[in-house]
Amino acid sequence: MIIIKDDRLIEKTISTNYLYRGRIINVRQDQVKTGDDKIAFREIVEHPGAVAIIAIDENDQVVLVRQHRQPTGAVLYEIPAGKLEANEEPLDCARREFMEETAMDAEEWHQIFVFYPSPGFSDEIIYLFQAIGLKDVQSPGSDPDENIEVRKIPLAKAKEMVMHGDLVDGKTIIALQYVLLNNK
Amino acid sequence: MIIIKDDRLIEKTISTNYLYRGRIINVRQDQVKTGDDKIAFREIVEHPGAVAIIAIDENDQVVLVRQHRQPTGAVLYEIPAGKLEANEEPLDCARREFMEETAMDAEEWHQIFVFYPSPGFSDEIIYLFQAIGLKDVQSPGSDPDENIEVRKIPLAKAKEMVMHGDLVDGKTIIALQYVLLNNK
After folding, report:
1. Are A60 and A29 found together in one domain?
2. Is residue A3 situated within a structural domain?
3. Does residue A6 form part of some domain?
4. Do A13 and B70 touch (CB under 8 A)?
5. Do residue B115 and residue B29 come from a single domain?
6. Residue B7 falls within a domain, yes or no?
7. Domain span at residue A176?
8. In the prediction, which pLDDT does A35 show?
9. Same domain as A150, residue A59
10. Does B101 contact A at CB distance below 8 Å?
């Protein structure tokens, strides 16, 4: 992160007011003072943060999961992912979610990106890992509230899906483009 | 979008309950019936949707904006972007936001991706455009609530910023990867 001190863009928080406290998210409104001394209000969705895992097997197939996403009203293809638990390290979360969702672990784990999917209104942060050297393990079982289906898709096919708009999940597009740019 | 009928993953909405209605977002809880006939609850942030614009000038410089993002507590580099107004077409919104934020228009506009940045909890959808053939115009003026600073960064430098973690906005990573993959 590039930090520039005395930046006229920096906003100072004056007060914070919680408007909604939910099961996974909270909503708060911050009153801020802008760099040119105006008062503004910012509506913010607090989210615990998440991990996502890009994994390509020895046959150049990408591990994807299909899941109904109620906000979109559709079943989406995504890379395996899940929310951070309290005090959980991102890498531990990535291995846990990957095992739960796919019954696989990996020999090597590399953190490739840390990013904000929606910094305009949410503090959600995603830690994106690449898992290399996949091996089958016994799944500890998944969230009973989640119905997912694991699919292995040839990388070339996944690329086509991105280009044709059949793959519409942001973190999955980032992960696949990363792999394509790095020839892996 | 790939639609598979009789998909056991599809969830049916039983009821919807609004928990928060805000200035930009709403929060609702949907009660759903899963494919295996269980009842589950989904917490959803409704968002109006947004556009984002990747624009490279004739000197291979990317047009970025710097903006304080209160959810992240930091000033981020992002491609120009903005929220859809009611009944606004994504392309019209892209041209409007681009003019407001950068005082530029373009000869060609191509929609390159439509994606959900956070489909697990929000219906926010982003229409990503590439603007080609940039030209200066008079800015109609920006949102008085928004303080932004336009910066042109050489594409090679922007690529380094992504790789070194200095560029942490999801839509900007997707857009830059796209440009790098397509040699533009």
Report:
1. no
2. no
3. no
4. yes
5. no
6. no
7. 50-181
8. 86
9. yes
10. no
Task: Quote the CA–CA distance of B74 and A11 in Å, as a whole number.
Answer: 9
- Chain B residues with CB-CB distance to A74 below 8 A: 1, 3
Q: Is residue A44 within 8 Å of residue A81, measured between CB atoms?
A: no
A184 — pLDDT class (breaks 50, 70, 90): low
Q: Which residues contact A182 (CB under 8 A, 6 or more apart)?
A: none
Q: Give the pLDDT confidence of B83-141 residue by residue, as tens digits.
A: 999 999 999 999 999 999 999 999 999 999 999 999 999 999 999 999 999 999 987 77
Structural domain includes residue B42? yes
pLDDT in tens, A71-111: 999 999 999 999 999 999 999 999 999 999 999 999 999 99
B35 and B64 together in one domain:
no
Angle (CA) A169 B53 A36, round 5°? 110
ipTM of the complex: 0.95
Q: What would the mean pLDDT of A156-175 be, rounded to a whole number?
A: 95
- When divided into structural domains, chain A yields a total of 2
Task: Name every residue whose Cβ is closer than 8 Å to that of residue B38 and which is 6 or more positions away in sequence.
Answer: none
A83 neighbourhood in chain B, CB within 8 Å: 120
Interchain contact, A168 vs B114, CB within 8 Å: yes
Give me the pLDDT at residue B4, please.
Answer: 56
Residue A116 sits in a domain whose CATH number is 3.90.79.10
CA A145 to chain centre: 19
